[in-house]
Amino acid sequence: MPGPSGGQIGGIPVSKVYKRSVRIACSVADAFAWHERPGALERLTPPWEHVELLKSSNGVTDGERVVLRSKVGPSWITWEVEHFDYASGQQFCDRQISGPFAHWEHFHRFADDGDGGCVLTDEIHYTLPGGAVGAMAATQVERRLEQMFTYRHAVTKADLELAPVVAGRLLVSGASGLIGRSVVAFMQTQGWRVDRLVRRTAKADNEIQWDPRKEMVDWSDDYECDAVLHLAGANVAEGRWTKNRQAEILQSRTESTRTLVKQLQNLRSLPGVFLSGSAIGIYGSRGDEELSETSDRGKGFLADVCRDWEAAADAAESLGMRVVKLRTGIVMSPAGGALAKLLPIFKGGMGGPLGDGQFWQSWISMDDWLRAMRHVLVTGSISGPVNFVAPAAVRQREFAQTLGNVIGRPSFVPTPALAVRAMFGRMADEALLASARVRPDALQDAGFEFLHPSLENALRHVLGRPL
Asked: Residue 239 has what pLDDT?
């Protein structure tokens, strides 16, 4: 349970203690190991926080340091923290060397609960800057800590209570994108070795340079991996769809897929599974029709792009790899994508439905996307197209109302369809006003369970707005 406390000098809060615990159905050893893996800090950083990791540590043992930048209001603040008092399987701690607090120490403690699980306790001792500044910030700091650790404990508990699987080595393209960044951190904390395909010169031992236009992947002769997750492709929602932009969107997907499949043939042994990005745009705009993986392809530019993208991935199947095509809906994250674009409008009190608000939107929380990806990766019976959407698509008007309710802002200012078309051109009808009522049949038939089956639940989680 959470609980801030502290004292006052002259009526001004000076020092406080924040403490929160969560029970996790796993051993202390597993919970401690999860926190020691690469990607743990990124995995635990709430998506609504603006944080950049400038220097990562090699673990949580004494003397290791982390440097990051975080945005507080309009300003960026640099933090440097150092780990201390490490006790394997019991605790690790970190203290602020430099940053916004007068004093900050964070104790991460792990204890056996005597019932087959463990209790993780986060305890933070902090001192605010003195004077009126500290007094004004006290309530805000307590609220942000509560938001942050509610999120962190939910993520830690859900990740550690996943059914254990044998970890392997995963190769990821598009690892710098919204989903790709989350995949790297999630799979690393799950115990996987994750290699990243990068277009610049490789700077780390888990980076491999590639250039799809030159059909080049610069891996060593003895490189091997167990699985490939291919997410690379130009951002569909960035800029108007001119002829040149449409060509880039299509080419970036088909060209990169063909290059990757071709170069995989040169490895000593092929990966067992090839997971390829795709999108529910393949179904086109279909009104109230319920759509599953067996539904016919729709019409339009996005449908054609997805068709050619998936066809390029099918070549991996002819080589003997299991191929899964991840048809993704709107991914709920304030760190990027559609939700990030909508939030400033809604926070400014100008949010509301697009067009008549009656078209269907199919969405999925980022955590469910990651869990679904892991599920299809390790489930050998799954192949072909899989819809990565939550089981409850919503009409756009309901989406707007729910978002407004969650953040406590009005959501009744409509944006006429004509205005959307004037702003975005062809993209408006295919990406913003398209109606796609998509079901996740393949995932549910394979026994996948959603963490966030309802839109309100998903939004409260990713925006730090618990009930």
From this structure: 83
